[in-house]
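Here is one chain, start to finish.
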Amino acid sequence: MAFRRRTKSYPLFSQEFVIHNHADIGFCLVLCVLIGLMFEVTAKTAFLFILPQYNVSVPTADGETVHYHYGPKDLVTVLFYIFITIILHAVVQEYILDKISKRLHLSKVKHSKFNESGQLVVFHLSSVIWCFYVVVTEGYLTNPRSLWEDYPHVYLPFQVKFFYLCQLAYWLHALPELYFQKVRKEEIPRQLQYICLYLVHIAGAYLFNLSRLGLVLLLLQYSTEFLFHTARLCYFADENNEKLFNAWAAAFAVTRLFILTLAVLAIGFGLARVENQAFDPEKGNFNTLLCRLCMLLLVCAAQAWLMWRFIHSQLRHWREHWSEQSAKRRVPAAPRLAARLIKRESGYHENGVVKAENGTSTRTKKLKSP
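Its structure:
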């Protein structure tokens, strides 16, 4: 991160230089945009990077409120917040996770997973708090019908659009972080899977004007993921602590059920009863039977895949656990030393000397020479 001490210098713009200084490079780019706000000539362009675009005044009963819709300029705003996320990622890594991992003395594999879970715990916790605040203030929890009523939801409040832009920025920043963090080749396919899965669902909810439903589903998903990564961090600190994994396993299955039920209720039944059913991309309307089936198929396939991976991992964990228990039971007891067979001579012992039955010693007496 910026202003930290360097123990080794690298050639300018070399691979190692970019890896070790990517947060500083991002900080310089962000600083250039912020400096642009100070000048009238560049202020308009700087605001294009910082603030959400496409604001529209929508008349309401109390007057007028400012709402937003999406467009190509959102890519510029997302790019700016990608650099912000890279900087925050480096701050959390250097000032929190690195200091904790040094005390734990983890192996390379566990160290990589510890960094991954540490970053995701911070992100999921902040996202859950932010998402819960948005859902409550907008009234999506108190009025579930608002998830599909008045579709298409083209005009978004500021906090809803900004939330989606930050979510897209985070998961897009995770792609170059695989290179910056030197993630092992064995871990890259697994991480690419869930990164792309989040990008597809978040971008789909944003572009198909299902932002309200997407917020509630993200709240459920992020809560479960936060519990999982917290359990993994506790496991790295104490390998005997697996209670949180049991709580996560129960929450994971319940969350899959809630997500599927809510998606079928909102897309399958709610949108099917909306009067405005037509395919009109210019107005943001995708409420047709084919589009609804594709959305449901995507959600159901993703949840089924996650559930299959969960069951597979749980079965593997149980097999390993029972194999360890059976191995402990099969360990033979330490062999006892065979008792030495002592050949006892006839008679009895007295003061360590074998006596004959008549009281005389069994030793042969030496005859004195005459």
